[in-house]
Amino acid sequence: MKLTLSAITLAAVLATSAQAQGLSYPNTRKVDQVDAYHDTAVADPYRWLEDDNSADTKAWVVQQNEVTDKFLAAMPQRLPARRIYTELYNFERFGIPFHEGGRYFWTRNDGLQQQNVIYTAKSLTDTPAVALDPNAMSKDGTVALSGLAPSRDGKLLAYGIAGAGSDWQTWKVRDLATGQDLADTIEWVKFSGASWTIDGKGFFYARYDAPKEGEKLKGANYFQKLYYHRLGTPQAEDVLVAENREDKEWGFGTEVSDDGQLLLISVWKSAGSKNGLMVLPLPKGAFAGGKPQPITLDFDAQYSAIAAVGGKLIVKTDKGAPRGKLVAIDLKNPAPAGWKTLVAEGPDAMTMASAVGGRFLLSYLHDAATLVRVHGADGKQLSEVKLPGVGTASGFGGRWGDQETFFSYTSLTTPAEIHRYDVKTGKVSLFKKPKTAFNADEFETRREFVTSKDGTRFPIFIAARKGLKLDGNNPTLLYGYGGFDISITPGYGVTAATWMKMGGVYVIASIRGGGEYGSAWHEAGTKLKKQNVFDDFIAAGEWLVKNKVASPATLAINGGSNGGLLVGAVTNQRPDLFAAAVPQVGVMDMLRYQNFTIGWAWATDYGTSADSPEMFNALYAYSPVHTIKNGAKYPAVLITTGDHDDRVVPAHSFKYAATLQAADTGPAPKLIRIETNAGHGAGKPTSKIIEERSDILAFIANTMKLEVK
């Protein structure tokens, strides 16, 4: 099962060209639409593709899929790649356990189940029972679990479900003793979980007003409201807890404190890391109305409340500390002047904090790999959690009174293992370790450092079969994201494993715009500095070529969502550097992204075309839809999206594909793969994941004229 550069027949070479496969793109009609941005006229000839409900758009989708399906079906790499991907995907997977009301909860997938199943047990040694099986909710597996919240006594389970990959959720309540759902049904929830009061009589959640007819999948989402739902009552009687009629961008995240006496409210205004913080007293663990009390609503930094202990609110923040610190706030005198630093900012970025067993467990990234330090209630460091290796650890949830917590550990060559951590003794023990067809002993990962255009240094992780020959001929797939304070760290994925087992090299780049080195690193890749992100990714590609890992003929790039924007922008800026590019569910129209669903919330990273002439010029200079170079030779491009994507609406990918196909960009294929009854990616059933991602790898292999056995 490897890729080879030899024994390529003339027919195989010809089969990779668009002309040889008789590739003829649909004739996408143009409209006379021109918009003025700060005295600059910008044509938008494919504006009509923004209407996902129109018959014309639906017909266009069918036509594009017919062309793409024909091309993909003719690739000799398709079936072998799908077989390998299926073999590697078919292994038992576990989620991180958590404890509530005398029960443990965790997810499990036997390998090829469409959705993960929720299990529960009184102890870790008991035979677990199924608490919830989303696979029974739809025949095609497109109904997915979107959230989970057990009541404090462990008797009831509030859960959210979403259909066809949409961000819209419906919440229900299940009696775990009977396995039956109660009559309670909560609609029009988006970007919210549920938080139970400790008395078990109800929970808090956030929702939007019902969308207008035809606007469900593309209409802008504003004015989120926070409610309390009392069990046994209709949603229409839910109590409004918080809203902001003056600021349409406010949204709410909630958590009830461990002692049940406080509702901790995070107030967000965008997809960025800056937020506000409020608290609402819950006398005797019950909701009694009242108005939330602000701790800070300056939206000048990140504030994550992790515990309320002894009249103090413990908060992780980057206020005055770009790499993060831990502070204690006196709830009787919450003015910032009185905040006490418990754990000061250090040289590494603090990415996570939790309060378990009278300890603070703080996760840091050291050159994009996880370190976990344990601090006492007074903030003094006591120890470190011993991790299995240089990789990514996550989890460590729990309550102040718990004596155990769980975490997952993974690397590019290590499938996620679940470990138990005893807070008192510091002992780490293995809970679950998956058995897969991927033999990690045959592969290795190394961390290298790349210097970008402006001298900035950042890490890349290179995973490949041991004994990699550096001759520039290795088929290499480079992945990146670079935005919204999201850190890209080494972790196992079947896409990477399949590519490596086929003989390829898989590389991830921890570039600016992410959170790998704290808030300053994130901000260095935002708004007028967004080009830094693209420069970093290009520098990673150039490093791979210079160091003979790959060559422009054997280097492909991939990314999704903001990473799709990354791939689109970099492809347009350096089409000579790559053989293939796969932007997935990308933000491709940077002049209009803010007009759809939650797009306005991304302005903290991107800025908008209306902000200023300078901001418009910056966006216009890299917007993938607007920077396609007529007459340049482009790599092979496979665009992917879902027709129910209401996060990054599919119009982005539609317009990008139409523009690419209409331009003179060389003979390499420019295709779009539109998944029906699918969204941005969350909750996608296993069958669709395997089909889409194996097609991506087969497309890249086909482009590189490589055999897959």
From TrEMBL:
Listed SUPFAM superfamilies: alpha/beta-Hydrolases (SSF53474), Peptidase/esterase 'gauge' domain (SSF50993)
GO molecular function terms attached to this record? serine-type endopeptidase activity
Which key words tag this protein in UniProt? Answer: Hydrolase, Protease, Serine protease, Signal
PROSITE patterns in the cross-refs: PRO_ENDOPEP_SER
- Record-linked InterPro entries: AB_hydrolase_fold (IPR029058), Pept_S9_AS (IPR002471), Pept_S9A_N (IPR023302), Peptidase_S9_cat (IPR001375), Peptidase_S9A (IPR002470), Prolyl_oligopep/macrocyclase (IPR051167)
Q: Its Enzyme Commission number?
A: 3.4.21.26
Does the record bear Nucleotide-binding in its keywords? Answer: no
Q: Which reaction does it catalyse?
A: Hydrolysis of Pro-|-Xaa >> Ala-|-Xaa in oligopeptides
Q: Which Pfam families match?
A: Peptidase_S9, Peptidase_S9_N
Positions of the Peptidase S9 prolyl oligopeptidase catalytic domain: 497-705
The protein's matches in Gene3D superfamilies, at most eight in alphabetical order, are given as: alpha/beta hydrolase, Prolyl oligopeptidase, N-terminal domain
- Signal peptide positions (record): 1-20
Q: Which domain of life is it from?
A: Bacteria
Residues forming the Peptidase S9A N-terminal domain are 26-433
- What's this protein's family per the entry? Belongs to the peptidase S9A family.
Protein name per Swiss-Prot or TrEMBL:
prolyl oligopeptidase
* Organism for this UniProt entry: Roseateles saccharophilus
